[in-house]
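Notebook entry, structure prediction.
Reason for the run: the old model in the group folder had no record of what sequence produced it. Starting over properly, with the input documented here first.
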Amino acid sequence: MTFDVVVMDKAGHPVTGLQQSDFTVLDNKHPATIQSFAAHTEQSQDSLEGALIVIDTVNVGFTAVSVARGQLENFLRRDGGHLPFPMLLTLLTNTGLKEIGPSSSDGNVLLAQLDQQKGLLRDLNRSAGFWGATELLSTSINALENVAQYEATTPGRKLLIWISPGWPIFDNPNLIVTDQQHRAIFQQLVRLSTDLRRGQVTVYDIDPLGTADAGSYRTFLWQSFLKPVPKWQQANPGNMALQALAIQSGGQVLNSSNDVAGEVEKCMQDGAAWYTVTFDGETSEKPDTWHGIEIKVDKPGLTVRTRNGYYAQP
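New structure, fully documented this time:
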């Protein structure tokens, strides 16, 4: 099992210089032996593979998409367009993900790509009713699953920055979820969790609505679905929330600022310094058995962010 670990100090800055002896791994609360350890910085030859930024044009209105694009342009102009590692820009449309150009570590190149997409509109929105919401969820989850499956075939760590308020999670108490739907959601969760882990993908969610969305019930609803799902009977649509998947991958949810450019910068800081910890995962008697993982650092005042576990197989 390979887990990428970000360690932050009290000020939120990445911590460098830690050694393998500073780390402890608990697998289902049992100590696990660290098989290999590596420290990474921007100057390392084995630095971050890259970042994928997804601009969601499906789950928000056109005005919010325009604001997000403008903020992203501000980010790409910083430091004369110099980026610490390659970035790939994509749009989530009603037909799925659309790459708008090849990846580049030159912000000016990405700006030119982005400028060509300003007229693109989405065909679906939140007011489309129940079946419209179902289609939004399906389009969004399928796009994330496609990214996860592809990245599972490529080496290196990647940051997946999704600029979106999230997709519908169907919190209506009158909604009846059948056993078949519970099983389907659980199997999709297992696939997503496994592919994101194998692909070393950390997910981040930035809400482009910022303070305009900060007080809404929907903004905090996803926090009810942060716990792992060990059994199919416990799987619900809310467990597929973008924000919950981001936290479980070791990423962040940034949803209370109008400074999208600054939020993207915060995400990118996770690529400035991190650690890779490899340990032997356990097998299980039954398929899809959840194993919770805790990675601790033996130094006071530090915060550790990493994925929260894995599904073990026979």
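Summary: Confidence is low (pLDDT under 50) at residues 121-127.
The old model has been moved to the deprecated folder.
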